[in-house]
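REQUEST FORM: STRUCTURE PREDICTION
Request ID: SP-0412
Submitted by: Lab K.M.
Chain count: 1
Length (residues): 65
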Amino acid sequence: MTVTTKTMREREKELQLQLQTPTGPAELEDLAGHYAEMALSPRRNGPSVITFILICEREQGKIIG
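STATUS: Completed
RESULT:
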């Protein structure tokens, strides 16, 4: 199975589109919560949910750029 790595810009656009769907905001908050648990570092009031997800995914090597 081949893993496709997306660029930061591609993933950001994808997350922004998901945010606009009826269930998107809750799904993104769930994903951010999952990443926060994995990293043992809460999101707090800092970055937006999209920025937080992008940071986590970049650290995990899921996105480049």
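NOTES: The longest helix spans residues 24-39.
Reviewed by: T.R.
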